[in-house]
Design goal:
The protein is of the alpha+beta class. The protein has a domain of about 230 residues: FAD/NAD(P)-binding domain (3-Layer(bba) Sandwich), CATH 3.50.50. It contains 13 helices and 19 strands. The protein is globular, with a radius of gyration of 21 Å. About 45% of the residues are buried. The mean pLDDT is about 90. It binds flavin-adenine dinucleotide. Flavin-adenine dinucleotide (FAD) binds next to helix 1, strand 2, strand 3, strand 12 and helix 9.
Length: about 400
């Protein structure tokens, strides 16, 4: 049995755990990242068919961490967002012209982000990638935490960062109170080519079963996120490809011309998971382990990136003042910095889904009025846009474009 000592141990090598490792490596901390999937399997393909809409501030963060240059040739700028509802007058059109001519975000394939993060972490001398291992046990004491891996080796550290996803085994082991709601909806995700150009426009159409979004990708492709009640999603995936694509295309009034599917589709059952407390002794929850939200606004990853940016600031301040990075005081400051952002996005995405995935005639009328109202009121629309771009509130260093420095 081998004992190894680290400053921070990150559990989970998803997009959030990998970003956390890269960001913390800039603080001169000694980091271990533990992931149950083997490294080479993830580098080849993790089977993730999704793309992520990275907000403008998320882009600043990835740039500050030194990986935007590696991603940008695969990133399609979002220039316009058209939100509509079938058979109502309501329609919102967000244009980058209203946002200082900056793109409102970028669409990138998750697989590409993950590979880039893995390679950048591999090149960091103070990050140890412990892949192909899961966790058998976990204990926390006054001065350290200890993780027992599936090969029986022990890792000791000052802080455990749980980025182990929505079903977080660590959250369950520690008994942190969690709210869970099954939306009984499933997103079918796939990539298409189309005969007409997307011109950088993201389309989102609200339908009673859930929204369908067409997100612009490089090379005249779009990523489709088609959300339906789970029973209907099952029927849709049993259709032949031509009927399936026809169904997707008519939902956005065939505005991209003829669609052809690239590869296959994948399904993602949707739920809300929200931990009321995201800290315990020498433990923090980040990303989906702390909050899995509905993808209706494409914000889950962006929210997790903001967790990391705030955590890195708090750990840098701790180093500067000589505090233990796993001490309760440091973690408490982190938790309070995340309260408003986390709870407001959980509430907003849950509320939006309830409002739009509904066939009541009265609600439909109100929705239509609401959508056109937002479209007409310029300043209000700009506030919504800046929030989606991640520009509201006090920003941590990584979102402002600087690396936090332990000595500043
Ligand atoms: C359909 C859909 C579309 C979305 N689109 C967007 C979007 O456009 N923009 C956006 O911002 N967000 C989007 N999201 C949300 C985003 O994908 C998630 O918020 C994000 O991927 C969460 O990353 P994570 O690293 O926290 O969790 P995960 O990706 O779940 O990673 C957790 C990792 O932990 C590992 N793990 C778990 N348990 C253990 C263990 N015991 N030992 C070792 N390893 C373990 C897992 O193997 C996994 O690699 C979307 C979500 C869905 C469902």
């Amino acid at each position: 049995m081998v004992h190894t000592q680290f400053d921070c141990i990150i559990l989970g090598g998803g997009l959030i755990g990998l970003t956390a490792a890269l960001a913390l490596s800039k603080l001169d901390l000694n980091i271990a990242i533990v992931e149950r999937n083997p490294l080479e399997k993830l580098r080849k393909s993790s089977g993730d068919q999704r793309t992520s809409a990275i907000s403008a501030s998320g882009k600043v963060m990835l740039d500050t961490l030194g990986i935007w240059d590696l991603l940008k040739s695969n990133a399609e700028p979002i220039l316009d967002i058209r939100v509509s509802e079938k058979n109502t007058k309501g329609f919102v059109h967000y244009s980058h012209v209203d946002a200082d001519n900056e793109p409102m975000g970028y669409i990138i394939e998750n697989e590409i982000i993950k590979k880039t993060l893995i390679d950048s972490n591999k090149a960091s001398p103070n990050v140890s990638l412990i892949f192909g291992q899961s966790v058998n046990g976990f204990s926390s004491g006054d001065s350290a935490i200890q993780l027992e891996l599936s090969d029986s080796n022990l890792l000791n550290g000052s802080l455990l960062i749980a980025a182990d996803g929505a079903n977080s085994p660590i959250r369950t082991l520690t008994g942190l109170k969690t709210t869970k709601i099954d939306y009984k909806q499933t997103s079918i995700v796939f990539t298409v080519n189309h005969t007409l150009p997307h011109n950088g426009v993201a389309h989102e159409r609200f339908l009673p079963g859930g929204p369908i979004a067409f997100l612009p990708m490089t090379d005249q492709r779009s990523s489709v996120v088609w959300t339906e009640k789970t029973s209907i999603a099952k029927e849709l995936t049993n259709l032949d490809t031509e009927d399936f694509l026809r169904g997707a295309s008519i939902r956005i009034d065939d505005c991209l011309g003829k669609l052809s599917i690239i590869g296959s589709w994948a399904t993602y059952p949707l739920s809300l998971t929200y931990a009321e407390n995201i800290i315990e002794d020498r433990l923090v929850l980040v990303g989906d382990a702390a909050h899995r939200i509905h993808p209706i606004a494409g914000q889950g990853l962006n929210l997790g990136l903001r967790d990391i940016a705030h955590l890195v600031d708090k750990l840098a301040q701790a180093q500067h003042t000589g505090l233990d990075v796993g001490s309760y005081e440091v973690l408490r400051r982190f938790q309070s910095s995340r309260l408003v952002d986390n709870t407001s996005l959980v509430a907003a995405t849950d509320g939006l889904n309830r409002l739009f995935s509904n066939d009541s005639r009265v609600i439909k009328l109100l929705r239509g009025v609401g959508l056109s109202g937002v479209n007409m009121v310029g300043p209000l629309k700009r506030v919504f846009m800046r929030a989606a771009m991640g520009h509201l509130g006090q920003l941590p260093s990584l979102l402002e474009g600087t690396l936090p420095h332990p000595t500043s």
